[in-house]
């Protein structure tokens, strides 16, 4: 029993009896406060006895000062920083020789810096020293998962400069194997993406189907991967007997394999957790970063060069372009799966509409003779030897040709100087722009999600590290066998021989320089092996070839003309303009 009122009570019970009650449970008349009543706080004098460093101070401890734990914030430790981590290039989920320098805050990605160039081989520079036919195998080795699509882009660019069109059967064969190549690429993209996340079964199931398509490659070209089958002017050889029947049987059963793939992944709870709302790219960001292909369509933008700018016979086939709505990894997966179904649809139409006829353009200056003719005709043997050693000469000009490759827009900017070798070949690879957006897509995600984002980008470093080591303007200087006209124009003044000053003084004449001192974009190459009849004839021909309107020097100026002065039409050509 309390002898007096304790210090923590609000008031004595005589002053406020409503706040007290009898505690008679234990049989003692103890008075306790009512629960919930307002409590009085201790006074300042009573609390000061506990304000020291210790609860019961002595003479020594009474002067101790407690540290200011709750008064001020602790000083910032300047030694604390984010973790910098090297991801790759030996990491199995890096899809090749990718190296990422990542800045992590715990498991959260704050910065992701891709380092490229580990597969650099100087492809663009090597092409400048090969003939137009010898340069073709380099394109197989750029995106080495989409071989024939790369060949198709280069062949279309050369055909624009030559102003030729392959036969209808060759165009249908190109589209047929272009869609087979799309299946090859999408199987690799989807199954390796699943393998990175942890699903192994789709990889083994779908690679069995991929082997069947490699067999189609081998039967038509002799090589399983680097086919060099699609060539300027058509294709290398006709389809062997029985191949179309086997492709039909394959396409008939492949839809079932896609159904099995979707049964394992599409509604899988783990797959959805690892891909939904991961690596989101808005439509605006996709356009600003220059995305194309599935990376662009997954964000909701319906852009497919097979529909918007048809090439070969894509305007004669029916197919749909799937698009996403949220722009995440899951939408891009669904787009690739649906594109495989549309490719099967296009393959079926190619098999049904395949016309008979030739598979190469009927031009002895471009297409080599048949093997049977070489055994009976000396002229055919000479043509074959000259085409495969010296190559065919392409009229001066430039073109940018783009196709819808499986990874996106694959473009070839080709500059010809009138000889049998390209003056400049600039390659636009879709994976280069996609890799540039990896930092944007990875920020704020966990480290494990970066693996899923790399898989959904579908990057192959053969095309990312494709660039050559030439100068800014690219081409060769002082090549053996020819003379590069170097002189002056209105942009600069340099010493020019008198006979060459005539060129720059004529109206609409090309700048004879195209040197690094000249900022204009005109040049001309004069081959010593096949000189002009006279300098005056060369001057009279050159201004028309390089005029601002890119008009044809031939009087007919239509596609029916096959003379040596005919140039590609303006809509297929990037016109040279005076600076």
Structure description:
The protein has helices at residues 44-48, 123-127, 136-140, 147-162, 168-197, 201-221, 243-265, 269-275, 283-288, 294-297, 305-308, 329-353, 371-374, 378-389, 430-436, 438-442, 447-457, 461-464, 498-505, 535-545; strands at residues 20-23, 30-33, 83-87, 99-105, 108-115, 230-231, 234-235, 397-405, 408-416, 424-428, 482-484, 525-527. With 579 residues, it is α+β, with helices and mostly antiparallel strands. The protein has 3 domains: 17-63, no CATH class; 121-394, Orthogonal Bundle (Cytochrome-c3 Hydrogenase, chain B); 477-579, no CATH class. The N and C termini lie far apart (107 Å). This is NADH dehydrogenase [ubiquinone] iron-sulfur protein 2, mitochondrial. InterPro entries: NADH_Q_OxRdtase_suD, NADH_UbQ_OxRdtase_49kDa_CS, NDH1_su_D/H, NiFe-Hase_large.
List the SSEs and their pairings.
Elements (H helix, E strand, L loop, with lengths): L19 E4 L6 E4 L10 H5 L34 E5 L11 E7 L2 E8 L7 H5 L8 H5 L6 H16 L5 H30 L3 H21 L8 E2 L2 E2 L7 H23 L3 H7 L7 H6 L5 H4 L7 H4 L20 H25 L17 H4 L3 H12 L7 E9 L2 E9 L7 E5 L1 H7 L1 H5 L4 H11 L3 H4 L17 E3 L13 H8 L19 E3 L7 H11 L34
Antiparallel strand pairs: 1-2, 3-4, 4-5, 6-7, 8-9, 9-10, 11-12
Helix pairs in contact: 4-5, 5-6, 5-12, 5-17, 6-7, 7-12
């Amino acid at each position: 029993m309390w002898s007096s009122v304790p210090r923590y009570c609000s008031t004595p019970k005589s002053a406020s009896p409503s706040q007290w009650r009898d505690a008679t449970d234990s049989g003692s008349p103890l008075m306790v406060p009512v629960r919930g009543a307002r409590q009085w706080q201790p006074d300042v004098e009573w609390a000061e006895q506990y304000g020291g460093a210790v609860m019961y101070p002595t003479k020594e401890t009474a002067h101790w000062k407690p540290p200011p734990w709750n008064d001020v914030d602790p000083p910032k430790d300047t030694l604390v920083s984010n973790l910098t981590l090297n991801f790759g290039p030996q990491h199995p989920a890096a899809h090749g020789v990718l190296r990422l320098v990542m800045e992590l805050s715990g498991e959260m990605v704050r910065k992701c810096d891709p380092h490229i160039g580990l597969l650099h081989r100087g492809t663009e520079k090597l092409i400048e020293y090969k003939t137009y036919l010898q340069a073709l195998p380099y394109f197989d080795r750029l995106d080495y998962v989409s071989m024939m699509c790369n060949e198709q882009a280069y062949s279309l660019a050369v055909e624009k400069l030559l102003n030729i069109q392959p036969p209808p059967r060759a165009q249908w064969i190109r589209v047929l194997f272009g869609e087979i190549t799309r299946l090859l690429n999408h199987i690799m993209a989807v199954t390796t993406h699943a393998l990175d996340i942890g699903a192994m079964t789709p990889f083994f199931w779908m690679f069995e189907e991929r082997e069947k398509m490699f067999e189609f490659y081998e039967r038509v070209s002799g090589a399983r991967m680097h086919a060099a089958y699609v060539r300027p002017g058509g294709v290398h050889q006709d389809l062997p007997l029985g191949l179309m029947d086997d492709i039909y049987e394959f396409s008939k059963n492949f839809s079932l394999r896609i159904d099995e793939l979707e049964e394992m992944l599409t509604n899988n709870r783990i797959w959805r957790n690892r891909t939904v709302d991961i690596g989101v790219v808005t439509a605006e960001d996709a356009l600003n970063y220059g995305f194309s292909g599935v990376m662009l369509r997954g964000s909701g933008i319906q852009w497919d060069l097979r529909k918007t700018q048809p090439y070969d016979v894509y305007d004669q086939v029916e197919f749909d372009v799937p698009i996403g709505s949220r722009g995440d990894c899951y939408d891009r997966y669904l787009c690739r799966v649906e594109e495989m179904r549309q490719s099967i649809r296009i393959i079926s139409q190619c098999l049904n509409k395949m016309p008979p006829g030739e598979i190469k353009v009927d031009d002895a200056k471009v297409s080599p003779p048949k093997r049977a003719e070489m055994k009976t005709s000396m002229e055919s043997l000479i043509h074959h030897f000259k085409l495969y050693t010296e190559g065919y000469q392409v009229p001066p000009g430039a073109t940018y040709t783009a196709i819808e490759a499986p990874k996106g827009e694959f473009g070839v900017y080709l500059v010809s100087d009138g000889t049998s070798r390209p003056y400049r070949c600039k390659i636009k690879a879709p994976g280069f722009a996609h890799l540039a957006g990896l930092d944007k897509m990875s920020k704020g995600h966990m480290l494990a999600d970066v693996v899923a984002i790399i898989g959904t980008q579908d990057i192959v470093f053969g095309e990312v590290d494709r660039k050559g080591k030439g100068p800014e303007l690219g081409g060769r200087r002082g090549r053996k066998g020819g003379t590069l006209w170097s002189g002056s124009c209105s942009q600069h003044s340099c010493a020019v021989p008198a006979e060459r000053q005539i060129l720059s003084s004529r109206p609409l004449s090309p700048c004879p320089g195209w040197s690094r001192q000249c900022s204009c974009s005109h040049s001309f190459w004069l081959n010593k092996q096949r000189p002009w009849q006279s300098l005056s004839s060369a001057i009279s021909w050159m201004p028309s070839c390089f005029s601002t309107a890119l008009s044809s020097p031939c009087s007919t100026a239509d596609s029916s003309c096959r003379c040596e002065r005919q140039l590609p039409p303006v809509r297929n050509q990037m016109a040279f303009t005076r600076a």
